[in-house]
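Students often ask why inverse folding is considered easier than folding. One informal answer: many sequences map to the same fold, so there is more than one right answer. In these notes we will look at a single instance of the problem. The structure comes first.
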């Protein structure tokens, strides 16, 4: 180790600014962030023991690499109830993963897919809540693309079908579904509070808000182009200089969790945002999900060239079903909460009956410039979900005791994978050659 200390010191000196930008407190409009976050921060409700059953869902995977380039992928999922009841799913996939990036993407999708399957099974137990590890909205926005993986090229079609079925059935049975993310890199909260400030500045400066909103909508997709337009407006005197600062902050990757911690707001939760799915990315294309959208099946066929295999009628039917299911995804309420002193913010995604019903009736709809909820009393599920999270909180290292226990029980150790390998050999009555350098031979 000492042989590299001089190089480390030299590298830190060279990249000091870049490192400080990540590790230090925010300097750009940091005082203003504190004000903006504080305006959206609320006190936590009293923790109350939840009525009804609560399930926590998680998954894990193990890989057995075989001589000759093949792999056995084992994925399992678990739904663990607060009374220790367990529901389980497991699948074994035999693959030749030619494209490593697509193989890793498939593992991620397959794990979530098995979580959706076991969560759907949990609905039969009539729970009040089902908690998943991760973002519910993020699972809705996976890029639609063909995987370079034999016989699994269009797996995203099956993924969307099962996820849509689960959420639809949960809403039908008035089961609240929570996605809990401990390590979120999301910027949706930051972007929304900045958007409000941008629109206020536009109003104060006599600038057309529609013009600002059009630029704001594409800042993430075309940041250089948008920032150059804003700079030009500032140079010409049409926009105040502060406008450029807000757009630059929206373009930055500083996550919500960083600005919430920097704001020092303490225990509490942020006013929820309402997120809906209006379009998805398919390859290099955008697929609009409104009823009037035309040509979307044609776009999908260019992305899934191998999948439809020249059978246009079959693919067209599948593509229409995919788009229909994407349209059926319910609105998601997203908020952050700090459950203990000096703890990190947790992102919570919530799908519930009252949120969907209020959206259907026109509450918090897209015509409103702000996506923040106007009335928490109209959606009691938000405070109920917070009460649940508080009841399961046991300190910064045990932010959710039920999710952590589900993770512990479902996780696969190296010993577990080795046991599974022996069972595979026994069932198949064949030997399995490892791909490792020592070429260990294992006999059934």
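Output (designed amino acids):
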């Amino acid at each position: 180790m000492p042989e590299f200390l001089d190089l480390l010191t030299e590298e830190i000196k060279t990249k000091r600014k870049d490192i400080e930008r990540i590790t230090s407190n925010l300097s750009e409009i940091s005082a203003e962030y504190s004000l903006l976050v504080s305006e959206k921060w609320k006190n936590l409700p009293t923790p109350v023991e939840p009525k009804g059953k609560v399930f926590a869902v998680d998954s894990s995977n193990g890989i057995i690499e075989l001589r000759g380039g093949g792999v056995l992928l084992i994925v399992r999922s678990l739904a663990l109830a607060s009374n220790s009841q367990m529901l389980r799913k497991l699948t074994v996939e035999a693959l030749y993963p030619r494209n490593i990036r697509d193989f890793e993407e498939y593992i991620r999708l397959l794990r979530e897919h098995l979580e959706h399957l076991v969560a759907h099974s949990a609905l039969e137990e009539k729970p009040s809540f089902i908690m998943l590890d991760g973002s519910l909205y993020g699972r809705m926005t996976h890029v639609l693309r063909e995987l370079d993986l034999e016989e699994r090229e269009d797996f995203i079609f099956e993924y969307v079908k099962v996820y849509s079925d689960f959420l639809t059935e949960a809403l039908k049975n008035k089961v609240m579904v929570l996605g809990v993310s401990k390590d979120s890199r999301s910027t949706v909260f930051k972007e929304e509070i900045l958007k409000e400030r941008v629109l206020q500045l536009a109003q104060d400066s006599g600038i057309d808000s529609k013009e600002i909103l059009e630029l704001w909508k594409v800042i993430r997709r075309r940041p250089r182009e948008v920032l150059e337009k804003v700079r030009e407006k500032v140079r010409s005197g049409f926009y105040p200089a502060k406008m450029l600062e807000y757009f630059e902050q929206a373009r930055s990757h500083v996550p919500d969790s960083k600005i919430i911690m920097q704001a020092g707001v303490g225990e509490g939760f942020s006013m929820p945002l309402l997120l809906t799915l209006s379009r998805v990315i398919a390859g290099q294309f955008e697929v609009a999900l409104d009823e009037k959208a035309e040509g979307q099946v044609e776009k999908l066929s260019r992305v899934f060239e191998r999948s439809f295999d020249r059978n246009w009628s079959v693919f067209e039917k599948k593509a229409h079903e995919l788009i229909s299911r994407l349209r059926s995804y319910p609105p998601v309420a997203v908020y952050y909460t700090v459950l203990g002193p000096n703890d990190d913010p947790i992102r919570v995604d919530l799908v519930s009956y009252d949120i969907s019903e209020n959206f259907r009736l026109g509450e918090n709809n897209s015509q409103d410039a702000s996506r923040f909820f106007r009335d928490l009393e109209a959606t009691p599920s938000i405070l109920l979900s917070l009460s649940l999270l508080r009841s399961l909180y046991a300190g910064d290292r045990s932010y959710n005791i039920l999710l952590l226990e589900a993770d512990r029980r479902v996780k696969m150790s190296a010993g577990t994978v080795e046991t599974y390998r022996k069972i595979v050999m026994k069932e198949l009555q064949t030997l399995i050659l490892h791909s490792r350098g020592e070429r260990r031979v294992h006999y059934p």
